[in-house]
Specification:
It contains 6 helices and 2 strands. It has helices at residues 4-18, 24-51, 66-77, 81-91, 103-127, 136-149, and strands spanning 56-57, 100-101. The protein starts with a helix and ends with a helix.
């Protein structure tokens, strides 16, 4: 569960990044998105690490595309970035039990999820350019886009 101040941070973040208004239910959907991305990234990273003869996932094992790198740089410049990093550090669910991240990878994860969050927020504008408050259907469409790509 996200602390009430965390809800406000994410509300400001979505407004700042995409001019989208979200509520506490949307924040729960967003947290579900982050949890799913952790699993997907961990599984992909584990496969890459094993392919390279390692049991521990290094940053280079993560599926970080050029677009995600650009969103990570955008995230870093946001006023809300440090608050979001801290919230992610405190409350991001751990990866599956059979996945181990290196210390460097652990440090990179808040940046990666920040970049993915920027991409998610902006995806609502791609789905519906006039959208101001996403419905459950908008969230499902956005999630489907990410499942197709990641």
């Amino acid at each position: 569960m996200t602390h009430p101040s965390g809800v406000l941070v994410f509300e400001r973040f979505f407004r700042s990044v995409a001019s989208i208004d979200i509520d506490k239910n949307d924040v729960r959907r967003f947290r579900d998105f982050v949890d799913q991305m952790i699993d997907d990234i961990a599984i992909t990273g584990r496969a890459s690490a094993k392919w390279n003869g390692r049991d521990i996932i290094a940053p280079q094992d993560l599926p970080i595309t050029k677009g995600v790198q650009e969103r990570m740089r955008e995230f870093d410049k946001l006023d809300e970035a440090e608050e979001i990093r801290e919230l992610l550090r405190q409350s991001v669910r751990r990866p599956p039990a059979d996945v181990t991240f290196s210390e460097e990878t652990e440090q990179l994860l808040p940046e990666l999820f920040g970049g993915l969050s920027v991409a998610l927020a902006r995806s609502f504008r791609v789905i519906d350019s006039k959208l101001t408050n996403p419905s459950i259907e908008h969230w499902e469409r956005a999630f489907e886009v990410f499942r197709l790509v990641l």
